[in-house]
Amino acid sequence: MTEFEDFYKDLSELIKSHSGKIMLRLQSDVESETIQIFGEKASSIDKAKKGLAEASEIAFTTAEHHPYWSLLYNSCQIAKMTLEKWESELTKEEINEISWSIDELKNTCKKIIDNPSHNHSH
User: Fold this and answer.
1) pTM for this one?
2) Which of 19, 21, 46, 70 has the most CB atoms around its CB within 10 Å?
């Protein structure tokens, strides 16, 4: 058993020990060594925003010269705006921003198709 697996086992026991006091949801992937803990008030939207924040971090820290950077960045921007407005209405300006991001996605796809030899350069 690895150190991480030992930690995960101990953490699972700790969460079980609090099961009568507080509702917690544990999501894990021991193979990739990731663990997420959500309280009972965490909604699906909250969880989606958390996951998107992780993807956005990659988009913001990846060099713009990477051929897939724009795909990730613009997809995250569209998803972020969508999740923020999930319970309300998108404004005309927000729809225009989404449309602009879609155009950027299309342009990036065209560049990738037109330049297949550069698809995996970093």
Assistant:
1) 0.75
2) 70
9-66 pLDDT tens trace: 999 999 999 888 888 888 899 899 999 999 989 999 999 999 999 899 988 888 778 8
**Which amino acid, residue 120?**
H
Does the CA dihedral 100-106-110-116 come out positive or negative?
positive
Rounded to the nearest 5°, which phi and psi values hold at 116? Answer: -60, -25
Which residue is listed with tokens 């958390």?
50
Return the domain boundaries, the chain: 3-39, 44-118
| DSSP structural state of residue 62 | S
Residue 36's φ and ψ, nearest 5 degrees, are -130, 140
